């Protein structure tokens, strides 16, 4: 067993798993270290410290320097005491710290635990107000070298420490040696191997220690660099990765990487990405791939702001030749849900189980291994993952073989097949004790789902539909799935809904789990949408990848749109193309009408900018304009263009102009696009500028003609705006009339071009008949009419609404209410229009109306006129409530189930007597028999939970909280978390958790932002939203956010 494993317990003591103990361990007696290393959670360690080790005589871990420095003053003592108090939210422990840490003890601890004596002397010279100021100064100094001198510790040649104070890798070390696996040699603490790099800093700054022993500090700047793209001189071809994550140890990672590159232009600097990684400089080698001749490295540097590792070479690399860089390194399994991170769950026996998984998109592969972390730099990957024998490892490709790790009993290397060429953000690792289920698709692909053992049966639905969806996409694109297997895994801690890693898709549990006894129709639809979205990415995003994040929408927009195409084929009764109008189109309209919107294709550079564009515009506007494009090109032309694009660009990268070219070729061949027009001409107006138009149709007095104009639709026009851009689009115009009422002709009959200020449409019926533009709302625009046409449409809706297509009924409601909100219509018109809903039976018009009425409800909820609005809404809902009833049936049509939930949610919220009574009654029955999960229909659970908790007291809240803690179903836990925020009991929402009466933090919100309360980090937003959405909790949430913003950010 090599030295690292022999000293695992020692290092674990220095780097204990509980993040907040990284400071505490420096202030306790040496004998406490071994006990703390056995603690797997922060709470366990705190309990141990409180019961045994927090005593004045054991507080300081003294060094021989302490005696001479004991009497020196420390200006930052009070700040340091304050920081110690913040280490725990436990009031008892806070008091122990405050009582125990005398000024003298804190001064000594500050000296020995936070910085070397030399650095501390520098700290004393400053008037430091906060601990963060002290740490910032410490990081700016040569901490490692100073400590090496004071403690007479050797700094090994070539030791390189990179970015150790970044977001999650802030190791507080005394003395530790860390290096990647070497030969099977046993060493002792007293006799480490001679070539071991020693990390001798207590607080290590963001710096690189160079081979000559010099240190280069790289402090963060308030000004972000924008030139963060890698040099184009090297092109990666192949990686070999060996990673050993200590999932059950101190969460460190032993790593080794080999990357073969081709030289595009001659260069003397080998540059790649790296973050939160400790390199072992003496192991770095660069060799000629053909001759195996080693290239001499002059020095190694690190650019912290750009996250660049540089190897400066003695001679330039020759253009056209291939070279291989190899190095050993050490990484860290963080708890921030990105990079290579750790997650956990509690099994049926109450034992905490750990796992390691990755989330690399968009720029976090560099946190797991040094790499060329840009989407255009595709390469093949050969992966070796180390695991303990009772765990399993999964990666992008199938496993080839497993073998024991020499000298490490109980450990295995899993070797995976070499991947197809792919971007770094699609690489994936999973090391866990999960169980799996497997089927084989119609075309012979091995398809598996993975989950914790007690939840594996909740993946049955995902396994069934996933294998069918994969086959559907193979047929739709006429391109076989290129890998031999496809895995899907449910992760307990996962930041987004899912991630499309090629061959191993990772999901949040609620996005993959479905239990027919507990999960609602909405949950079932959500699971299918998420699975379809990620599987669509295997072609759009994985097979053909955007060249840079500017064209993220090419990946996310297509995947989002293909969801509806796929499910409409698999579940036609769900009417997904109808739902798209309400769920996507109207949703993105609400964001894209703001001056703060952005173009769908937007230049980005810095990782922070890249992360910001993973938003509704990229996903949903992308899907909406693709839908529009499909309709003006026709289905057949659209599919042919897509297939040609995917086949030609397979395993490569593309920009939006590449797609436009293939679709233009198909359109010209099929004569669905005029020869003088290109898709680029049309679509650039939708992707390169933000917003969308409102098309105004003003009919002549006799109605026979209409003038059509366009302008950007803005919800609120800022009179002080400095935006001088002239917004014009190529708009596909389609229309139908009362006489024909033909809603099947969705292809444009006319185009309103970018250069047209207005056009005239002729041959319309007389003014006593209506016209509707934007048939089935296939275009990405709103429509306003003259007053007479609006009145004719309202008249038709009230007489026989079925004569107008359901999509256009939803369109009329959404357009009218938003035009009124923007001041372009009087509110009397849309309120008159929605009166027809009393006879409407379809889901999407109702959902559209209620989604828009939520704004009006919010505006009036705290006014004296709210009673009138409430009565109006109850009358509007009355007939529907009687029609659908409170009794739910899972055999009802899918959209009827959706409509029932929507109507009942509003009825109960507005205080409908029967709705509230029935909800409270069902909840009370459940409280009497909590093991009976069938008392409340899965569809109605949230309505019942929220209504009963709002009407109830602390008893109902505590019952729901305990059900949340005990539930094993992700969708049920999410529902309960949201419902707990419905309480109207102020003591529940605002009772202090602390003894200090001034700390009036909201109870539920504080629980969400406190570690180990039972609420996972990924669910914090859900809790905050639930409280803020509550009329009673709105002000509390705002006060909490305002007062606790700094702590929340930290």
UniProtKB/TrEMBL annotation:
Q: How does it sit in the membrane?
A: Lipid-anchor; GPI-anchor; Single-pass type II membrane protein
**GO BP term (any one):** peptide catabolic process
Task: Point out the annotated site residues (description: Transition state stabilizer).
Answer: 619
What is annotated as the active site?
534
| Source organism superkingdom | Eukaryota
Q: Name one GO molecular function term.
A: metalloaminopeptidase activity
- Please report the stretch or stretches of sequence annotated as the Aminopeptidase N-like N-terminal domain: 236-426
Which reactions does this protein catalyse? Release of an N-terminal amino acid, Xaa-|-Yaa- from a peptide, amide or arylamide. Xaa is preferably Ala, but may be most amino acids including Pro (slow action). When a terminal hydrophobic residue is followed by a prolyl residue, the two may be released as an intact Xaa-Pro dipeptide
Record field: transmembrane: none
- What GO CC annotations are associated with the protein? cytoplasm; extracellular space; plasma membrane; side of membrane
Q: Name where it's found.
A: Cell membrane; Membrane
Where would I find the ERAP1-like C-terminal domain in this sequence?
Answer: 770-1048
- Free-text cofactor note: Binds 1 zinc ion per subunit.
* Keywords (A to Z) from UniProt: Cell membrane, Disulfide bond, Glycoprotein, GPI-anchor, Hydrolase, Lipoprotein, Membrane, Metal-binding, Metalloprotease, Protease, Signal, Signal-anchor, Transmembrane, Transmembrane helix, Zinc
| Domain spans labelled Peptidase M1 membrane alanine aminopeptidase | 461-686
The cofactor(s) it depends on are: Zn(2+)
Which positions are annotated as binding Zn(2+)?
533, 537, 556
- Which InterPro entries does the entry mention? Aminopeptidase_N-like_N, Aminopeptidase_N-like_N_sf, ERAP1-like_C_dom, M1_APN-typ, Peptidase_M1, Peptidase_M1_aminopeptidases, Peptidase_M1_dom, Peptidase_M4/M1_CTD_sf
Family of this protein: Belongs to the peptidase M1 family.
Q: Can you name this protein?
A: Aminopeptidase N
Q: Which organism is it from?
A: Scylla paramamosain
Q: What is the lineage of its organism?
A: Eukaryota, Metazoa, Ecdysozoa, Arthropoda, Crustacea
């Amino acid at each position: 067993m090599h030295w690292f494993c022999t000293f695992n317990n020692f290092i674990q003591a220095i780097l204990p798993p509980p993040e907040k103990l990284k400071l505490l361990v420096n202030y306790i007696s040496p004998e406490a270290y071994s006990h703390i290393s056995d603690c797997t959670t922060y709470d366990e360690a705190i309990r141990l410290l409180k019961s045994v080790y927090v005593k004045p005589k054991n507080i300081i871990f003294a060094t021989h320097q302490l005696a001479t420095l004991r009497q020196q003053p420390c200006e930052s003592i009070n700040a340091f005491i304050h920081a110690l108090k913040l280490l725990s939210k436990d009031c008892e422990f806070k008091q122990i710290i405050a009582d125990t840490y005398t000024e003298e003890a804190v001064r000594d601890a500050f000296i020995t635990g936070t910085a070397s004596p030399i650095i501390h002397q520098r700290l004393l010279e400053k008037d430091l107000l906060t601990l963060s100021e002290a740490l910032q100064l410490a990081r700016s100094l040569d901490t490692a070298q100073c400590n090496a001198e004071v403690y007479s510790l050797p700094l090994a040649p070539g030791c390189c420490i990179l970015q150790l104070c970044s977001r999650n890798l802030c190791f507080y070390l005394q003395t530790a040696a860390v290096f990647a696996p070497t030969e099977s040699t046993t060493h002792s603490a007293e006799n480490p191997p001679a070539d071991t790099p020693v990390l001798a800093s207590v607080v290590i700054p963001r710096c690189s220690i160079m081979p000559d022993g010099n240190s280069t500090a790289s402090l963060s700047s308030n000004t972000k660099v924008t030139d963060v793209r890698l040099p184009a001189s090297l092109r990666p071809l192949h990686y070999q990765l060996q990673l050993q994550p200590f999932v059950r140890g101190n969460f460190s990672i032993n790593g080794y990487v080999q990357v073969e590159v081709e030289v595009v232009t001659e260069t003397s600097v080998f540059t790649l990405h790296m973050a939160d990684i400790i390199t072992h400089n003496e192991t770095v080698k660069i060799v000629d791939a053909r001759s195996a001749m080693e290239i001499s490295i002059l020095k190694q540097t690190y650019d912290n702001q750009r996250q660049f590792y540089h190897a400066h070479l003695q001679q330039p690399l020759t253009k056209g030749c291939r070279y291989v860089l190899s190095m050993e390194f050490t990484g860290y399994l963080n708890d921030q849900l990105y990079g290579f991170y750790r997650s956990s769950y509690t099994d049926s026996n109450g034992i905490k189980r750990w796992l390691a998984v990755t989330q690399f998109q968009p720029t976090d592969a560099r946190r797991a291994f040094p790499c060329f972390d840009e989407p255009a730099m595709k390469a093949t990957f050969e992966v070796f993952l180390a695991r303990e024998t009772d765990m399993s490892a999964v990666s992008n490709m199938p496993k080839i073989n497993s073998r024991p790790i020499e000298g490490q009993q109980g450990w295995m290397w899993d070797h995976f097949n070499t991947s197809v060429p792919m971007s770094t953000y699609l690489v994936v690792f999973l090391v866990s004790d999960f169980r799996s289920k497997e089927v084989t698709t119609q075309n012979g692909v091995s398809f598996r789902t993975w989950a914790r053992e007690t939840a594996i049966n909740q993946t049955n639905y995902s396994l069934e539909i996933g294998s069918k969806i994969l086959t559907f996409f193979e047929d739709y694109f006429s391109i076989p799935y290129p890998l031999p297997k496809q895995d899907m895994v449910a992760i307990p801690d996962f930041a987004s809904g899912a991630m499309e890693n090629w061959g191993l898709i990772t999901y949040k549990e609620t996005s993959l789990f479905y239990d027919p006894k507990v999960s609602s129709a909405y949950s079932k639809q959500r699971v299918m949408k998420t699975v379809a979205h990620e599987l669509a990415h295997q072609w759009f995003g994985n097979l053909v990848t955007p060249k840079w994040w500017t064209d993220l929408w090419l990946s996310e927009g297509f995947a989002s749109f293909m969801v509806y195409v796929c499910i409409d084929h698999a579940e036609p009764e769900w009417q997904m193309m109808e739902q798209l109008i309400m769920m996507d189109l109207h949703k993105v309209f609400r964001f894209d009408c703001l001056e703060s919107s952005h173009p769908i294709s937007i230049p980005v550079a810095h990782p922070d900018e890249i992360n910001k564009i993973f938003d509704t515009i990229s996903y949903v506007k992308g899907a909406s304009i693709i839908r529009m494009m499909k309709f003006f090109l026709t289905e057949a032309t659209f599919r042919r263009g897509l297939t040609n694009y995917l086949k030609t660009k397979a395993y490569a990268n593309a920009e939006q102009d590449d797609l436009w070219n293939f679709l233009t070729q198909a359109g010209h061949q099929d004569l669905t696009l005029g020869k003088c027009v290109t898709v680029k001409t049309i679509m650039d107006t939708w992707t390169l500028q933000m917003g969308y138009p409102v098309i105004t149709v003003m009919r002549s007095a006799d109605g026979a003609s209409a003038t059509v104009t366009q302008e950007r639709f803005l919800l609120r026009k800022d009179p002080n705006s400095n935006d001088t851009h002239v917004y014009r689009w190529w708009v596909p115009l389609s229309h139908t009339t009362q006489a024909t009422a033909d809603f099947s002709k969705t292809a444009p009959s006319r185009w309103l071009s970018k250069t047209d200020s207005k056009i005239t449409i002729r041959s319309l019926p007389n003014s006593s008949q209506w016209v509707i533009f934007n048939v089935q709302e296939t275009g990405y625009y709103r429509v306003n009419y003259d007053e007479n046409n609006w009145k004719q449409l309202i008249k038709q809706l009230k007489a026989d609404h079925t004569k107008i297509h359901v999509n256009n009924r939803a369109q009329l409601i959404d357009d009218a209410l938003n035009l009124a909100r923007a001041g372009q219509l009087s509110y009397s018109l849309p309120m008159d229009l929605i009166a027809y809903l009393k006879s409407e039976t379809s889901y999407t018009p109702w959902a559209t109306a209620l989604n828009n009425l939520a704004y009006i409800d919010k505006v009036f909820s705290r006014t004296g006129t709210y009673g009138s609005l409430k009565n109006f809404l109850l009358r509007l809902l009355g007939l529907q409530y009687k029609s659908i009833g409170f009794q739910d049936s899972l055999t009802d049509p899918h959209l009827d189930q959706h409509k029932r939930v929507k109507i009942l949610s509003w009825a109960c919220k507005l205080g409908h007597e029967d709705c509230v009574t029935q909800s409270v009654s069902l909840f009370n029955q459940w409280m009497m028999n909590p093991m009976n999960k069938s008392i409340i229909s899965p569809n109605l659970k949230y309505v019942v939970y929220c209504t009963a908790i709002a009407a109830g007291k602390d008893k109902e809240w505590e019952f729901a909280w305990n059900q949340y803690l005990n539930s094993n179903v992700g969708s049920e836990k999410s529902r309960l978390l949201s419902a707990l925020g419905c309480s109207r009991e102020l003591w529940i929402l605002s009772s202090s958790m602390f003894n200090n009466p001034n700390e009036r933090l909201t109870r539920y919100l504080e629980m969400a932002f406190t570690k180990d309360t039972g609420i996972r980090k990924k669910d914090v937003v859900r809790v905050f939203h639930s409280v803020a959405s509550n009329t009673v909790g709105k002000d509390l949430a705002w006060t909490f956010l305002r007062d606790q913003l700094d702590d929340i950010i930290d």
